[in-house]
Amino acid sequence: MNQKLFSFLVLLFFASSTSLAQNLYQTEIENWKQKRIDYLKSEEGWLNLIGLFWLHQGKNTFGSGNEVDIKFPTNSIPENAGYFELNGTTVTLFANESTDIKVNNTSSKKAILFSADSVNVFATYGYLKWNIIKREDKIGIRLRNLQSPLAKSFMGVNRFATDSLWRIKAYLKKPQINSNIFITNILGQTNAEASAGKLIFNFENKEYVLDALEEDNQLFILFGDATSGKETYPTGRFLYADFPDTNGYTMIDFNKAFNPPCAFTNYATCPLPPKQNILPFAVTAGEKTYGHH
Questions:
Q1: What is the pLDDT of residue 3?
Q2: What is the pLDDT of residue 15?
């Protein structure tokens, strides 16, 4: 085999390998996008939220009428359906005799919806579903419409073109002692969250650092960049990464950067990126902004 032919075959091999790798990566991102759409459209997604009602201590009446403390959508439930009693941090549902509310799929006139020991308790009536959320000293009802037109018609979020150059190798520098990252949410509440470490990576020959949290057995990153408030959601975006390998390395894939829940609904309580996680350059990858929340 002459040298020219050999060189040509080598180039052809590497071109084919590169093309295959790009196609596989494109498929990976397309699959990720579809799972993201499926989640947002699901019962537990963010598209069907229609209310968030903070409770006060004692009796909180609810229903679809105008004489109750918490007003559900008109004609969605009896005008006076019952009340929620908040006692300390325990929330108990008291349903009127004429109101067939189900708690975890079982009809109930009285049930504890939230306490120190409760896990995944939800209530339903017709197409409505609700559960209790707690944010520091605030406890409230998160209400969903399981027939949400938005969830039914949702087709996805505009995105930047997928580019594998935004899949960047990073080193996780773990804290030598337990340390915290202070995270503020849109309610103005600040919590000290346990730090998983600092992700150190290079972009255009400069070193950058992102503080990471741990969530759902992954690294969780809240970040902003020069596209925030322009092409992307004003307060920043979210991103997950795998835990590092035995040498401390993982991949930050900005093509999988996604909008916070607050981009889809006014009834979420999103955390905001800490100041040190605001990148000075434009991350032209991942989801663009959606809606006007």
A1: 61
A2: 46
**Dist. CA 259–CA 162, nearest whole Å:** 16
Average pLDDT, 10 consecutive residues per value, the chain (293 residues) = 53 55 90 97 97 98 97 97 98 96 97 92 98 97 97 95 97 93 97 97 98 96 98 97 97 98 96 98 97 63
Judge residue 79's burial from the number of C-beta atoms within 10 Å of its C-beta, 0-12 exposed, 13-18 middle, 19 or more buried.
middle
| C-alpha separations of 235 from 125, 171, 273 in Å | 35, 25, 7
Q: What are the Cα distances from residue 38, in Å, to 152, 163, 277? A: 11, 23, 29
Q: Which domains does the chain have, with CATH numbers?
A: 49-147 (2.60.200.20), 156-277 (no CATH)
Q: For residue 202, which phi and psi values (nearest 5 degrees)?
A: -110, 140
What pTM was computed for the model?
A: 0.89
The per-residue pLDDT for 291 is 73
Q: Report helix, strand or coil for 215.
A: strand
The answer to whether residues 249 and 170 touch, using CB atoms and an 8 Å cutoff, is yes
The b-or-e profile of 190-224 (16+ CB within 10 A means b, else e) is eeebebbbbbebeeeeeebebbbbeeeebbbbbbb
